[in-house]
């Protein structure tokens, strides 16, 4: 287990290497697409190492006996690995589409967090929460920041993200704030579109009601004015 963590972290925390983690949650909350992209500038000391680092990574952090060679073990599921070379940098992306039950054992999440909680309450609110403390900073001092993004069209009732744009919730975990965690609560029955539609309908209903009341007031005023003559 320790060997898996050290192998992955040695890639994850290269000097001059940037890291961005993205989790896309589908409408039904059944599929969790996980992507980790690592990039290094061509002029950095780690360019050649990162460019040629294509060893398979198990999706489950509990896998033991992981080999340091390029060979995969029978019966073990691995992340898909995509490599891209540009004129000034190279990047590696590890990707896998998890089921709901598989995601709790994500090899990437457990690399830097000691645990993750996932549960749904009786109001259909689903909580996704990691443990506090980003462990990678203490083990690998060169790492300064990791960007974490969660993308969902569901109605988010709580989050501790640093910023939100459209359906993307972004955390920037920095070395000077390593005790924080990832915490988001979404409602499984409602999407952002459903909430917006309900809001628009409510506004439209208020406008219609206001218009009707205005007509009634005008009619009452005219009748009163007529009867007063």
In words, what does this structure look like?
By secondary structure, the chain is of the alpha+beta class. It has one domain. Helices cover about 30% and strands about 35% of the residues. The chain contains 6 helices and 11 strands. It has helices at about 1-10, 45-50, 100-105, 110, 135-140, 190-225, and strands at about 15-25, 30-40, 80-85, 90-100, 115-120, 125-130, 145-150, 155-160, 165, 170-175, 185-190. Strands 3-4-2-1-7-10-9 form a 7-stranded mixed beta sheet. A hairpin with a 5-residue loop joins β1 (about 15-25) and β2. The longest helix has about 35 residues, at about 190-225. The chain is elongated and about 90 Å long. Residues about 190-200 have low confidence and may be disordered.
- Anisotropy-based shape: elongated
Number of structural domains: 1
Q: Give the biggest sheet.
A: 7 strands, mixed
Fraction of residues in helix: 25-40%
**What Rg do the Cα atoms give?**
25 Å
Order of helices and strands: HEEHEEHHEEHEEEEEH
Q: Measure the end-to-end span.
A: 94 Å
- Helix and strand composition category: alpha+beta
Proportion in β-strands = 25-35%
Are there runs of 5+ residues with pLDDT below 50, and where?
192-200
Q: What number is the mean pLDDT? A: 78
Number of strands: 11
> Count of helices?
6
Strand order of the largest sheet: 3-4-2-1-7-10-9
